[in-house]
Amino acid sequence: MESRRDPFKTLIVTILSQNTNDKNTRKAFERLSNNFRIDPETLAKAHVKQLEASLKVAGLYRNKARVIKEISKIMNEKYHDDLWQILSKPVDQARRDLMLLPGVGPKTADVVLLFAANRPTVPVDTHVNRVSRRLGLASENGGYEVVREALQSLYHPRDYLAIHLLLIAHGRRFCRARFPLCMACPLNELCPSRSLFRRVS
User: Above 60 in pLDDT, residue 4?
Assistant: First the structure.
């Protein structure tokens, strides 16, 4: 099975992206890449303090350094540096196995599955969550899985990547958290939430 991206690098980038922005994620990954080969064997052997020094820009860098070292050790010892041993399983099993790794929750697992392995799942980040609820695509109640399952029930699996990216783009451009641009939004006439934000648009 061919990967669209290196799955282990995708996993590391996604961990670095937790609780920080894209710019800091890129900087942290570049610094990590400049100091280490991004593979399980190398990172498993790295001293945690050296990892921390590379990751300071990413925020929560001590925790991320520890998690990356632990994951790398597991990947090296249990999976022989081959993340495809997990990703090639049926998607639900692969998702469960990914979430057994330290620091890997549903969103991180779904990002790796979708972007590295082209598996049918919809990662729910803050933009996807907000826009889906405002547009009435998902219930206002319930957590991550409620939104993910709602979106997956509405769209064909071949469209999951496009839906994920479009919802993120819409959230960044129009459907912002604090000051949504409802009057300029191309979905204004279809959005059940537009009246809630008319005063601040």
Answer: no
Same domain for 101 and 160, yes or no, is no
* Same domain? 130 vs 112: no
CATH number at 183 reads 1.10.1670.10
Domain boundary (71, 92, 117) is at 117
Let me know whether 101 and 192 are in one domain: no
Which residues belong to the active site? 107, 125
Convert the pLDDT of each residue in 12-63 to its tens digit. Answer: 999 999 999 999 999 999 999 999 999 999 999 999 999 999 999 998 999 9
d(C-alpha 177, C-alpha 118), whole Å: 29
pTM value > 0.85: yes
Q: Is 71 left (phi over 0), alpha (psi -120 to 50) or beta?
A: alpha
How many percent of the chain have pLDDT more than 70?
96
The whole-number pLDDT of residue 1 equals: 32
Distance, C-alpha 179 to centroid of its chain = 24
**42-55: b or e for each residue (b if 16 or more CB lie within 10 Å)?**
ebbebeeeebbebb
Question: Same structural domain for residues 136 and 108?
Answer: no
